Protein: Beta-galactosidase
Organism: Parasphingorhabdus halotolerans
Amino acid sequence: MKLGCCYYPEHWPEDIWVDDARRMKDIGLSQVRIGEFAWSRIEPEPGRYDWAWLDRAIDTLDNVGLEIILGTPTATPPKWLVDSMPDMIAIDADGNPRNFGSRRHYCFSHLNYRKECERIVTALAERYGNHPAIVAWQTDNEYGCHDTIVSYSESAKLAFRKWLAEKYADVGALNIAWGNIFWSMEYRNFAEIDPPNLTVTEPNPSHVLDYRRFASDEVVSFNKLQVDILRARSPGRDMIHNYMGFFTEFNHHKVGQDLDVASWDSYPLGFLEQFWFSDEEKLRYARQGHPDIAAFHHDLYRGCCTGGRWSVMEQQPGPVNWARYNPAPLDGIVRLWTLEAMAHGAELVSYFRWRQAPFAQEQMHAGLLRPDNEEAQGAVEARQVAREIALLETANNGQKSVAIIFAYEAAWLFETQPQGQSFRYIELVFEMYSALRQLGLNVDIVSHEADLSGYKMIVAPSLPILSSAFVDKIKALAVPILFGPRTGSKTADFQIPAELPPGALQDVLPLKIKRVQSLRPGLTEKGDDHDVSRWIEDVETDLVPSETLVDERGILFGKNGVNYLAAWPSQKLLRRIFMKMASDADVGICELPRDLRLRSLGDLQFAFNHGIEALSLSDLNLASAATEFLIGEENLPSAGVAVWRRQIESQNRA
Amino acid sequence: MKLGCCYYPEHWPEDIWVDDARRMKDIGLSQVRIGEFAWSRIEPEPGRYDWAWLDRAIDTLDNVGLEIILGTPTATPPKWLVDSMPDMIAIDADGNPRNFGSRRHYCFSHLNYRKECERIVTALAERYGNHPAIVAWQTDNEYGCHDTIVSYSESAKLAFRKWLAEKYADVGALNIAWGNIFWSMEYRNFAEIDPPNLTVTEPNPSHVLDYRRFASDEVVSFNKLQVDILRARSPGRDMIHNYMGFFTEFNHHKVGQDLDVASWDSYPLGFLEQFWFSDEEKLRYARQGHPDIAAFHHDLYRGCCTGGRWSVMEQQPGPVNWARYNPAPLDGIVRLWTLEAMAHGAELVSYFRWRQAPFAQEQMHAGLLRPDNEEAQGAVEARQVAREIALLETANNGQKSVAIIFAYEAAWLFETQPQGQSFRYIELVFEMYSALRQLGLNVDIVSHEADLSGYKMIVAPSLPILSSAFVDKIKALAVPILFGPRTGSKTADFQIPAELPPGALQDVLPLKIKRVQSLRPGLTEKGDDHDVSRWIEDVETDLVPSETLVDERGILFGKNGVNYLAAWPSQKLLRRIFMKMASDADVGICELPRDLRLRSLGDLQFAFNHGIEALSLSDLNLASAATEFLIGEENLPSAGVAVWRRQIESQNRA
Amino acid sequence: MKLGCCYYPEHWPEDIWVDDARRMKDIGLSQVRIGEFAWSRIEPEPGRYDWAWLDRAIDTLDNVGLEIILGTPTATPPKWLVDSMPDMIAIDADGNPRNFGSRRHYCFSHLNYRKECERIVTALAERYGNHPAIVAWQTDNEYGCHDTIVSYSESAKLAFRKWLAEKYADVGALNIAWGNIFWSMEYRNFAEIDPPNLTVTEPNPSHVLDYRRFASDEVVSFNKLQVDILRARSPGRDMIHNYMGFFTEFNHHKVGQDLDVASWDSYPLGFLEQFWFSDEEKLRYARQGHPDIAAFHHDLYRGCCTGGRWSVMEQQPGPVNWARYNPAPLDGIVRLWTLEAMAHGAELVSYFRWRQAPFAQEQMHAGLLRPDNEEAQGAVEARQVAREIALLETANNGQKSVAIIFAYEAAWLFETQPQGQSFRYIELVFEMYSALRQLGLNVDIVSHEADLSGYKMIVAPSLPILSSAFVDKIKALAVPILFGPRTGSKTADFQIPAELPPGALQDVLPLKIKRVQSLRPGLTEKGDDHDVSRWIEDVETDLVPSETLVDERGILFGKNGVNYLAAWPSQKLLRRIFMKMASDADVGICELPRDLRLRSLGDLQFAFNHGIEALSLSDLNLASAATEFLIGEENLPSAGVAVWRRQIESQNRA
Ligand SMILES: [Zn+2]
Ligand SMILES: [Zn+2]
Ligand SMILES: [Zn+2]
């Protein structure tokens, strides 16, 4: 695994570039991402390119042997460009423009902006496509950041109509698919259809789901436009985009089909603060992030690129500027995050950013260096971990163990009709992921279109749109599989299946969901040693349940290894279910304390202590006096990492 | 009382209509509401009517003897109509359009949309007005649903100016009535006046109140337009509209003057979740609804139609889709709700809807049938209650007992100037209603214009605009009467009366409110065994108070049976006040446990257990070994109902 | 000190004016503010002035010897004026108009509205400028009330570009100052620059800060326009504006340079309810206001006018109408507030308003008189305090003791980039003020440009933009000085200083802030007997800290009397720090109970009991049997005030 950083030569006086490059090497970095926000310097006036400075910057980095990932600058079109076609900006749900003055001020559907992107990307690719220092390209930057996937512009409206016409051909088919008869919402032609916005009450959910599919497809084609240009002019370089955390607004699996490497931007502290975690978790992990946040995304994005190659393009190196509260990371945790990425198979961990900028929006975002050019804590840890990584042989990602099936459309669907406010798809997936990880298991998070053969256990937290083809695929697998609540609850058109949920799953599991209930906080259904909250389903079946509530209602049903969970589960229930599945699958598990996580990669075994207290690996029977540690030792301090070589006989241990 | 359902033949393949009709009869339903959202099928292209399908649907229902309530489809104008005059949609308070894509996408003040409504209603009335199966018409659907009463469109602005010119004739009179001198808000002519919207800080409250009166009057005239057309072309049929729960945006008393039957849509679980109830109540009654929610509306809407005729047009039969959380009703509670409506004098309980639709916005709203055509729990209970109703002779609503006076303008006024955030009119009324009902009393909720003679007790939770005529009316009554806080606090122009509150009431009760105070949560004034919260008034009077705080300040004052309560009361205080009033009025009361409610209708006595625990009617001295039950028995299980015949000597028991 | 009231003759029938004037005198008032909302009466039609009524009103007041403060009516332009140039209204952050219908419906940058203001102010000044009864003018009313400083109108955009061109001359300088290279935000000319509004994510903080400076400057010039006209035509009269509470949207120090008297509008109960105080404080002080609210503003605004002259232009006399909850003031507290203003050096306390208006927006705002013309509690207390004031010789404000340095730009800066949601500048200043006041100290709150010589202690709660000139100034002072967190953290361009925070302060205090952390509620750092919350900084220094956390990290560092506090402090920590500073400065302190406050003025010593319980001044060693009280006595009841003459030897007691 390589280390790198994000660098903005245009932000600094040219006379310190050489020193910057030298210091990067000295710390142990080998790759640098540059250029992705520099349009106004590359093309300061319409049509007038200034390559000189960028030539020099690239050469400066190249001269010390740094490899370069060059970003296309399409996330920050300059003011003169926006002023030349003011309707290129996106329109928000209230009908307001999303103006110039920060970044991502464009609508994916604006055809002339796409032309401008073609032009600038072509120019960049032609200038640097064959430069030996350029090893990869990053397209744009963080698609969707600041809620920029869905736009209600005129361009988007016209593109949506075209998308619908292509999908449905006949507007009558659309009327039926959406159930437009419901409230006289029938259309006579595609030109009558508007985006599902500012309606009196909620718009038709089928309308919304198609709009989100459309918006996601716009991202896919926008990205492909750039990739096609770059591949043609820069052969042999990796195509990369940097995804974000807990972000499901577009289909990353689809975008990933056009990439060589899926990268993501890892800010564990910011994500903990900004997302659904409880106050208790936000305090406990304020300086580490929840132990599963980074790993979840590593495992998710590894599955979002056809070849399974992935990186961390931006790694939090200190306090950030954008969360409600921004504490400093625990000393040592930047190192831990770096080794953790390695344990999950990353090719690169690139710190964001080289030096903290003293100006503009992100001036309070830490870098490896402080604004006064001294090393910040991030640099200290990067230097240490660079040495440690060198001790570890690169290994491939190892054998398949547990697969979680993730579907972006599920997120869109449940956001469109949650039915209960607390039913959040990404949280349900995360809960199941976390339960598996607390059993010490290696997890792959994959698309429902992925090859599932070879996995020993499969978990689909919820798969609301369930095709017969998918059911046929799982029929061929002889491993334990769990489907979570609301699986098979909708057709692809966002309708309830004629045979009721779980739809096509009934082919292998004879049960029907006859009624569902969402439960407000505090309203729970009692199990023996756990509570069901948020969601419960009434099941009609002759199957004997394998988990019941105290009132005898079944909440888990299985047949031939295929299981259906008819409730929102607690961690306690999940642990029991997964332990049973692992036992059936003959997968070794290890019940871990709350703050400890394991990961194996090839024959390397990693252990990470995300807690404040030290842990003893021997006490947990994870290590013994005989264990030879490559990194760390059996006593794992706060933020500590240990790595040792796994034994052959424990092959089955995840 | 009849049972019915809401049915949408246009949603289903025609080949199942016959079976649907047969099954409705089989369950015990006799009325069906249809048509209210079907405009796009009745008139698929401008001016081209398609009656054939509706003819067949009506005949299919008629053939098995079902009676039909036909809805006018004006809540869902088709897209082609909206596109032909895009300014017919309402404009929200932010100036945004309220677009096509769901329902109720029209502004009541748009004159050309009114013409279109005239046209479609006339066409419907001419086609079906004399069809023997048509027994009633429903105008539009749920006026005001999704916050659609007040619009800030150009049409509304022009209509408002006209309304003002008619009301005030002279703009000088308006300037005085509103007190426009206050901040140089004086107008020189009516054409200078805009809706009270997007002002820098709060607009003049008189301006707001007149705008809400105007908006309400627009509903009245919109409804009357349809009623007049229908009455002329469909003689002998009942005119109905379906009101909503806890909804006060327009004056239902005024709309009701043009109707034969006031109906309403009863969703006890959704209302509990969405309104002001405490978390404790929301958990305790999650699957039953608060015991007074349905009854409150039954008693309210009975008073919203001149003849006192009323129905439940939509009865929740299972989980709904639109609350934040949507649990399933307790088994048996749909039956309880149905018998409860009967006990309060309903003519019809119509379940919404026949079959759960698998598509569009309400696909998660339960019906009597599941989407797969099997019977849901609602159908099971409807079938049972249909048999039970047949056992009970219809009786009239019985003698007058307690009247609550309800004023829609009071709701508008306190929303415009709450003076303390927690002063909510509808909640105050509900609190008083609930206290009366927990004493076992029958309650009528009536307009201040209603005939009050014959009532044994009268309660006006608050009547801020109090005319001398009304005071004269109560002078003639020799029964205990309670006026709540802020009664008489404003003139009809939204000014403080010259003689101070309670204004004209001082004619019968010599006291003045010299100062009022709103209290933040936690700030209370101590009574002996109760707390005053939210609101307290400083009273200037020589009267000896009948309730005082521990510091001797009076909060209840009375003279000749007329009482004024100068505080927001707790349930404890209300119970004491009402017991005293009942004793003075010689009205029998019964202190009920929290979950039990009684209602008498003619000589039938009903008891309803809204709780989870069983209750014994004997233990409560409500029944004895000798009681002959028509329904149920002395042990009342959870969701249980008992009905027995009242004794003559207990006439005074409510 | 004089007493006065705000009076609106135009609201009342002319035949009661004489009686009103007589009663004002009778109560003890000597000044009356009139006219500030009367534009529609002064100029009922464009260009047609009606002076007659105002002539008579002024003469009526003059006839009984009342002095008049005449307001310019520019806060309430009439409808005809707005209709003549509809673009004169402000545009809010969502792009919506801020319409006519209440007040302050204008944009400060609209040039033609400025012309209209010139016209009406000139007309008023020419008519009344030399009237002997007119002793002062109030410009406009409460600049900024209802969030009216910042506007996004076309006028504002053009004026902003002009302001920028004047400030930067060259757009390249602006690009560098703002760091526009960051996200390709560079401009090619000033005409490309828009207000920082509706951007996709946060705009450049330098852009925002300049927009706020611009908006503030617009207020300054708007005010100066009026002052210049008035001074020329009404020589010898005081120029006054009435500021608001906890309001920092414009630079009051700058506006104050054009005024003779800074006045403010004091509503302690409303401010307590509406601002950040804890629930415990909101309940404890519901009827008094927090003990430091009024005093804080007295001391703040005394420093906002070059000569130190100040008044209370509007004094809450009873319940108000505009807070979420509006309880009544404790009996006696209006008197206390009045004497408290005197103790802090006010020239006038003017009650708002004479008589409660029965109409329009503020009809629930108490006056000295009730709407029925009887005296309300406010009048009772005003009459009493008028007599008491007469007993006390006027004295000057006394010697300098403690100075707090207040910077409006600091408020704008921290609002633009809080970095942690709970870092609120005004709250930090208030906390420090309150800690000082609980030690019995007299405090002046002054601009960083003020003359600091003569103060015995100086506290800068935070001074993020710290010039070398200011550091030079403090070098010359030999008194203890405390700088709070984030001092020196930014340049004037909103960049991090090259030498890191605290920037230029390093010149006298050798430390660097190498990292900052914001802490979510509940995340604290432990000190020995206190907790650090919200904010903590990591300090690089060789200095030995004078306060440390339990883990030894320093949070307070000092050298030669200059101290830097690297954390958000608790009251406990502040008390300890200030006691040490006071001891070093040889300033006498007195640890007061929570509800008691002291203030000295010349040789008068005041004590105020803001609590519900009585306090004994002897028990606190503040008085003895020998003390001769001018007002009150040694036992201070709830809302009680005592005044006595200070001894010469206790000169050093604040
Ligand atoms: Zn990023
Ligand atoms: Zn409905
Ligand atoms: Zn004011």
